[in-house]
Specification:
The complex is a heterodimer of chains A (322) and B (297). By secondary structure, chain A is mainly α. Chain A has two domains: 2-55, no CATH class; 82-321, MetI-like (MetI-like fold, Orthogonal Bundle), CATH 1.10.3720. Chain A contains twelve helices and two strands; from the N terminus they run H-H-E-E-H-H-H-H-H-H-H-H-H-H. A two-stranded antiparallel ribbon of chain A has the order 1-2. In chain A, a hairpin with a 4-residue loop joins strand 1 and strand 2 (79-80). Chain B is built from eleven helices and no strands. Chain B is flat, with a radius of gyration of 26 Å. With 297 residues, chain B is mostly helical. Chain B has a single domain (67-294), classed as MetI-like (MetI-like fold, Orthogonal Bundle). Helix content of chain B is 72%, strand content 0%. Classes of the chains: A mainly alpha (322), B mainly alpha (297). Chains A and B meet through helix 1, helix 3, helix 4, helix 5 and helix 6 of A and helix 2, helix 4, helix 5, helix 6 and helix 7 of B.
Amino acid sequence: MAATSTPPESPEVAMIRVRRNLRYYLDQGFYYLTMAFALAIAITLVWIVIQIGLTAIPAITQFGLGFLTSTTWDPVQNIYGILPQIYGTLVSAIIALVVAVPLGLGIAIFLSEDFLPTYVTTPIAFAIELLAAIPSVVIGLWGIFILIPFLRPFYTFVHRYLGWIPLFGTEPRGNSLLTLGLVLAFMILPLITSISRQTLVSLPPYLRQGAMALGATRWETILRVLIPAGFSGIVGSIMLALGRAMGETMAAAMLVGNSNRINISLLEPGSTIASLIASQFGEAGRDQVAALLYAGLVLMILSLIVNILAEIIIKKFQNVER
Amino acid sequence: MTDISQPHTPDTTNDQFRKIWTSPRNLFGLFMTGLTGLFAAIAILPLAAIVINVASQGLPLINLDLFTKLPPPPGLSGGGLGNAIVGTLIVLGVAFVISTPIGVLGAVWLSEFGRGSKIAYWVRFSANVLSGVPAIIAGLFSYTIVVMTMGTFSAFAGGVALAVVMLPIVMRTTEEGLVLVPEEVRLAAFGLGATRFETVSRVVLPAALPSIATAVTLALARAGGEAAPLLFTALNNNFWSTDLFRPIATLSVQIYFFAIIPFKPQQELAWAGALVLLSIILIVSIVSRFLTRRKSY
């Protein structure tokens, strides 16, 4: 970085003028090669949107924005709409956030305070990070054969006693939006925990000292000073987690039940955009592929919005920090 | 605190400074500490449950056949996932060949040449956003650019999709490794008359090699577990295949297909495959964690 400037080619310094030999061109070539590769990642991002958008054009022209509000998915007559999938994607992501945000934030606080010595908290933090490393197809397999049978009595219980709430108003089946939401909660938990924890740890110490000096207890300090101060970092982590939850595919395809209906009851099977693509693409004809690519474009745009917002929020926070 | 101050001022007026544990404020604090501790314990449960369940279901099924035989026809038992294991390695190989040069050299530009520039900001921004893009989108992307142009599902298309998944991870983690190389090392190389290329290739990259290797390995482990990008790029194959331009079986996709069909022998193979996949990924994650922790320049 320091040596990028070339010496001026005035007569006085002609002695140390850069010689245009092989070494020089190799160096220049290397510089532009690395720059091109760095730019490649930005280009890839734009290219993905354009490429999927272009390929989805037949479906876009045929269905227009009605695609987003129609509930029909009929491969026989080639009429497509993804409202149930949008609904399922949002509902399962919201369930995941409702469970994972308090849990993740609580853990982040627990691990960033000195309640336990670091030789205890570090392994806990690492174990939670490892949760993120488990392939989603393994989580899906585990969900089908272990988690669903395990949850069934709880669902029956919830339905029996809380069945008057429409959200639990139907006989529980194994595959449901609620099951998916709970699994997604544990898949996004590491993300919320690690980013919120980093945020809390990186807060300037005088915030805590000031609050303590004013007579606040530890938890008053945490809730009234530290969390508001780290709020944007925490919100950023929640946005990232939302994006992750919306795009999760294999766990969704294996646990949500892939039913093309909107049900108020969370105990009923549903469908998400990603699970729709995963479960239908294999045997799709040409028109259906275009419709699935359109669905993919919708998912891509949703995830771009969420991720870009998250990125901006986190960046902004970091700049304030410095 | 009160214990220390007690001997000096034994009079009762000091009681107002004593921490009253039964006051609502302190009880609330105790409750919250306990609650968040409980949360931390709850968060460990799924990891423990998944590891224990996968191990107990998969371990009895681990044998030589698993690694050397083809999967059995639906409903029949025996056989293994040999072709899927080979397929995963091939697809990962393609992804490695595409993503590593781009990721590592892109990271070199970010850390060595573009630091602080506007372009570097946007490149990092794109890398972060791309790493948040759902993996299935990478599959759709590869489908439109590779499968549709070549007219066939292929191992190569799967590799392209996984390369998109790996690229942001490789680039950002490599950059983190490069930034750790002390500035003096670069200045010394420049002082000896080395060009930027020579400095990077002979000094900076070798110094950062362990962390780059860790970054690439972690990205490979992550990509190796992905099934979504491979569903309609590499597709699947019931037979041995090493052809880059033909559909190929992979471990993750095979687990998915075997998990959702109602045949016991296939489901058992899915568990065995899950155990293989999970062990590799956990071992890589844990080992790389210990390697990077020791690393300090």
